[in-house]
Amino acid sequence: MNSSIYAGPVFEMAKQQFVHVADHLQIPEMDRDRLLYPKRAIAVSCPIHRDDGRTEVFQGYRVQHHLTLGPTKGGTRFAPSVDIGEVAALAVWMSWKCALAGLPYGGAKGGITVDPYALSPRELEALSRRYMQEMIPFVGPHTDVMAPDMGTNEQVMAWFMDTYSMYQGQTVNEIVTGKPVSAGGTLGRREATGRGVAYLVGRVLEILGIRADGATAIVQGFGNVGAIAAYALAERGLKIIGVSDHTAAYFDPGGLDLAALHSHTSEHGHLAGFSSQSLIAPSELLVQKCDVLIPAAIEQVITGRNAGQLKCRILAEGANGPTTPEADAILHTRGDEIFVLPDILCNSGGVIVSYFEWVQDLQRLFWEQAEVFDRLYRILERSFQQTITRAKRDRISNRMAATAIGIDVVQGAKRTRGLFP
Fold this sequence. Notes:
- The chain is built from 14 helices and eleven strands.
- The protein is α/β, with parallel strands linked by helices.
- The protein folds into two domains: 4-172, 3-Layer(aba) Sandwich (Rossmann fold), CATH 3.40.50.10860; 191-347, NAD(P)-binding Rossmann-like Domain (Rossmann fold, 3-Layer(aba) Sandwich), CATH 3.40.50.720.
- The protein has a six-stranded mixed β-sheet.
- Pfam families: ELFV_dehydrog, ELFV_dehydrog_N.
- Belongs to the Glu/Leu/Phe/Val dehydrogenases family.
C-alpha cells in the first residue's frame, strides 16, 4: 500500500514495531495492510481571528485507525510538531492499547500544529471550537470520542463538548472524555494515567523484590502524567531524584522536594528557574542511576545512542513511543537487567478511565472515586498478568507480548466480522 501520507519517523517506528510483531505472529502478508493502515484520515484548516486583528489558519488532523470493536478513541494534541504521520502512529498504538485492556474501542488521535502557549486564552478557545466544528461530520459518541493529550486539558475538552452540543441542539457529554467533573467528567480521570504508572511500577518492584521505601525514581516530563506518577510513587515511599520538562532538568541523589516543585510549576507553568544547584543536561538525566526511570514526555527519547547507558532497573513508559526499535534491540541484549513496562500497558490508565467516563455519561450514572480506581487497578492487573505470562511463555519481550495480545484481538475481530461488502 502507498503510505506516503503517513511519512515520518514516528509512523515508521510504529510500522516497524508492527512488522516485527506480525512476523512473530506469522500474520499473512495479505492481512497486514488492513491491520496497520488507518481506516480514515482527516485534514482540516482552522482559521481564527488573532487578538491583533489578523486571520491565521492552523492545520488540524484526526486519524481513526479502526472501528471494528466499537467507536475510535484517542487524544487531541496541540503542539508545533504535530503532523499526519505522528497522529497516525499514535492512533495505531492506541488501537493495540485499547485491545490489550479489553476496551470496546479502536484507536484514534488528533491534533493541531500550533504552540498552544503562544495563544491567548481567547485565541485558544476560538481554535479549539473551530477544530471541533470542522470535525463534527466525522465524530460522534458511537463513532469517535476525543480526549485530551499534550497541549490540551479539561477546559479544551469542555469547549469541544459545548461546540458539538450546540450543533446537536442538546447536551452530548459523551462526545469527549477528560472533561471537568462539572461538565460530565469522571472523578479520577486527571490522575488516572500517572496513578496507573505508579500501580504497575509497584507491581514490578514486588516481583523484583525491591523495597518501595527507599527506592529511587527519575521522571522525564513533569506534566500531568509525570507529576502525578511522581507524587503517587512518593506516596509509596520512593524517592524522586530527577525530574525534567521542556525547559529544564534537575537531579539530586538526596531527593527533590516535590511540594516545592509543584508550587514552582503552578506559579510559572514550567520547571525553569526552580534551582541552579541541581541543574543537569536533559540528555544526562536519562542515564543517571536509579531504580525506576519514567519517560513521560514525548516519543523517541530512549534511542540507540543512550539505551546501552541506562542505569535503571525498571523502565516505565509513561509517554507514547518513548523507546525506538533500535533501543529495544539494545535492551533485549541486556537480558533481565531492565524490566520494561511498555507504553501500551504502562500508560493505559488514561484511556481506561476515559472509557469509564464515556460509560458513565451514556448511562447518566456516576461512580465514586474509590470505585473508579478499584476498577482501574483490576483492569491494569489483568493486562499486566496477561503480558508477563505471554512474554515468559513465548520467550519474548514485554513490549512484543503486549503488542501481540492487542494485535491478536483486533485481527480476531476483523476475521469474525469479515470484509464488507
